[in-house]
UniProtKB/TrEMBL annotation:
Reaction equations catalysed: 2 a phenolic donor + H2O2 = 2 a phenolic radical donor + 2 H2O
Protein EC: 1.11.1.7
Binding-site residues, substrate: P163
Family: Belongs to the peroxidase family. Ascorbate peroxidase subfamily. Belongs to the peroxidase family. Classical plant (class III) peroxidase subfamily.
InterPro entries assigned to the protein according to its UniProt record, in alphabetical order: Haem_peroxidase, Haem_peroxidase_sf, Peroxidase_pln, Peroxidases_heam-ligand_BS, Secretory_peroxidase
Residues with site note (Transition state stabilizer): R62
Binding residues for Ca(2+) 2: T194, D246, T249, D254
Cofactor(s) required, per the database record: heme b; Ca(2+)
Protein's UniProt name: Peroxidase
Length: 328
């Protein structure tokens, strides 16, 4: 009798463990009982910060993308380690604006006051991204929730796993296909460059050293636009100088980015090729002429970003401080 009871307990324990290991699927009402107002709390914090600085919008969106592409949507990009070898310490980190990190830290503080210890930093970053997009007049979408925060953050995992601004279409398709993204996903997600900044160094070669030829300018630039860029970004300009990725509507999440590409106003090679390469050109043309089509494709793709390598209670935790692993 005694033995049978302990067997039963063991069986229950195994069932409980394995259901955590399989992972509860993400759901939009994940916090319905434990933190029903989480979206509003996060969006209020994001709005408050946007009111202080509009950089909050692009900084948050980009942080979500970088975090998810490296070891999944698990807030691993937020971890700060004294050894300075976390994801954020990789050479790619330099361009991640500090305001994205600050947005999550502030939203977490507000969430913790209302519902302590239940909402992951990964979910807060996913929500904050959606809030930032909505508050800049982009699409509104319901965010799937239930991610746990990751237990690994290593700078060495970043190198080679993020797309580069000088990538051609094959290189872009290749790195996105590793995460099961289609060409439509790639073009739609690149539309996030409808907001935010780009440092001159990221495209200086297109202005002054095209194809390694000193003085040559990439002919896929609109010539008048290239002349304007040469004024904003003189040769050998300092590393801190940046320009708007979307010169027309830099703080509005809209489809103007795609008409920019059609007109030769794309700053990065990786954006310009989406139009110059005839394989992706029809998608750019469609999004340029139909914002609804862009928004629908973007929402589909950004939800896929949020599903990348989701952690569960078996391989994650609910961090108390988004910038540090919990002490065990
Ligand atoms: C397709 C491949 C991509 C490449 C090669 C790329 C590259 C870049 C580069 C070089 C910058 C400028 C960084 C700087 O100079 O400070 C940038 C900015 C940005 N990227 Fe991307 N990106 C890509 C895809 C994405 C995706 C998928 C998203 C989000 C869904 C995204 C969101 C942003 C945002 C919002 C900014 C502006 C950041 C700011 O102003 O702080 N990017 N990206
Ligand atoms: C942000 O600014 C707008 C316009 O001034 C204001 O209506 C809104 O209440 C502010 N939001 C927050 C959360 O402070
Ligand atoms: C970015 O990475 C460099 C090393 O690659 C490091 O020195 C720097 O402190 C990092 N910056 C931030 C803001 O984490
Ligand atoms: C990749 O995407 C396809 C189509 O959306 C889906 O059927 C498949 O299960 C996905 N594979 C992985 C590994 O996520
Ligand atoms: C724009 O795209 C949406 C969504 O794909 C579609 O329903 C609509 O018919 C398109 N509009 C036009 C004018 O093509």
């Amino acid at each position: 009798m005694e033995t049978r009871r302990s067997n039963l307990i063991i069986i229950f324990a195994v069932i409980a463990l394995s259901s955590a290991a399989i992972g509860e699927a993400l759901s939009s009402d994940y916090y319905q009982k434990t933190c029903p107002d989480v979206r509003k709390i996060v969006c209020d914090a994001v709005e408050k910060k946007i009111n202080e600085t509009a950089v909050t919008i692009p900084a948050t969106i980009r942080l979500f993308f970088h975090d998810a592409f490296i070891t999944g949507a698990d807030a691993s990009a937020l971890i700060a380690l004294p050894t300075e070898d976390a994801e954020k310490d990789s050479s790619d980190n330099k361009s991640l604006a500090g305001d994205g990190f600050d947005t999550v830290i502030r939203a977490k503080k507000a969430v913790e006051e209302a519902c302590p210890g239940v909402v992951s930093c990964a979910d807060i970053l996913a929500l904050a991204t959606s809030c930032a997009i909505e508050l800049s007049k982009g699409p509104t979408y319901t965010v799937e929730l239930g991610r746990y925060d990751g237990l690994v953050s290593k700078a060495s995992l970043v190198d080679g796993n993020l797309p580069g601004p000088d990538f051609n279409l094959d290189q872009l398709l290749n790195i996105f296909a590793k995460h099961n993204f289609t060409m439509v996903d790639l073009v739609a997600l690149s539309g996030a460059h409808t907001v935010g900044f780009c440092h001159c160094s990221r495209f200086a070669d297109r202005l002054y050293n095209y194809n390694g030829q000193i003085g040559a300018t990439d002919p896929s630039f609109n010539p008048a636009f290239a002349d304007q860029l040469k004024i904003a970004c003189p040769a050998n300009v300092g590393p801190t100088i940046a320009v708007n990725l979307d010169p027309y509507t830099p703080v509005t999440f809209d489809n103007i980015f795609f008409s920019n590409l059609v007109q030769g106003y794309g700053l990065l090679t990786s954006d310009a090729v989406l139009y110059t390469d005839t394989r992706s050109r029809p998608i750019v043309q469609q999004f340029a002429s139909n914002q609804t089509a862009f928004f629908e494709a973007f929402v589909t793709a950004i939800e896929k970003v949020g599903r990348l390598d989701v952690k569960t209670s078996a391989d994650g935790e609910i961090r108390k401080d988004c910038t540090a692993f919990n002490k065990h």
